[in-house]
Amino acid sequence: MKRNLSSRFEEVFAAGPVPDAATMRTLPFGQQLADLFYPPTMGTRHGDPKGAPHLHMVMEKIALLLADRPRDILVDGANPHCTADLSFFERNYSQLWYGIGPDVATTALFPPGEHGAVKTFLRVAALYHDIGKHINTDRHPTIGWYLVSSMYPDERNKLQTMLTRTELRTLLTIIRDHDKFGVLSSGEASLPLLASTTHLMQEEVKIQEQRLTALMLVSLADMAASFPLDSCIAGTVMRDWSRFTRALENAWGDRGRLLPHVVQEAQQYESTVERIRRLLMTISRDDSGQWETIDDKELISDILKTTFTNRIDVFCEDFALVAKLDYSLRFFRLVVQECRRRGMTNPSTITHVIVNILKGIVETYGEMLHARRGHYRLIGVEFSSLAPAHAPEKAKALINLLLERPAEGLAWLLSDVPAWYIWE
Length: 424
Known about the structure:
The chain is built from 22 helices and three strands. It starts with 6 loop residues before the first helix and ends with a strand. The protein has about 425 residues and is mainly alpha-helical. The protein has a three-stranded mixed beta sheet with strand order 1-2-3. The chain is globular and about 65 Å long. It folds into two domains: about 5-255, no CATH class; about 265-424, no CATH class.
């Protein structure tokens, strides 16, 4: 796929990773971008805890990622915690640009002659990816998609003159879906969630792979600017990208064939254990170093087998269709913290608590998941009301009940987590 990126965008990044405010205002949606990157006081805007520093950091991280040493975006690049994951990350990253063996032109996803334009486009995508925050931080990916696609026709027309149709579609996908690789790596989501990044219309498989790859690379920069991105997580993201890319190829780029393939993979027992492992690792990570991160597949497997006995296959099948546990990390982290505060520090005890919550969610929404044979329904479950930042006493009361009288606490929890269809 050749990119016909306007030379104007190339000029924008000539002076450094982040254009100045005056330059930014000359771009499509420039006022919105300038308001985000250069607010009156360089810091956080109301309702935006990360603020402008995060946006600047994303631009710096994408510049590092696109340089010769992508490991430089990792906090442990010099001394990796997960050497196998780092090797997988770097090997696959290199193959994107330089292919396999001597035949670069046919084996590289991005041929050498397009590298400059592709890298400029990725910087453009990083520049615009959080534009929805101009309206509201919550749900900003979806808001951003509508802002660029529908809300300002004149600005959109300007953007269309600077990008090809495929580039614009890819940019909109990145704006809308830039959190998906992150929530996959944290265990909040299952692999089928990525199917929404594909398009109903037929496109060449390579174009879809390039779009997915652009999304993955911008997501990595966003993650590196949000938390200490290490080799373990980078390897996880790259493996998810690899799994989904293979699925795209096996489905010949047809979304109708793609979804059954990724659903079946996500429903495997090993995939279920891995998703719960990721979730437990994310919510049990303790920056103070006082507590060990829970990272034990054997423990998770034992607890799943004792919890579900002969119905474990049903849980695995249904849990994969709960494709997103939206805004769940804050609540789950509070659960882990309260367990530890009470002296319930055994990883087995904490894992039991989390698995029982997941069990309740799957059983509560099981009917939503089942349709006619061969037809899949994906749902998301919304956790934001369980631990509102403005009302910490609610989360405290709920978690106390959950730990002291589990059945009653779970009933309260399940009454307060609405679900919606992602895909019918």
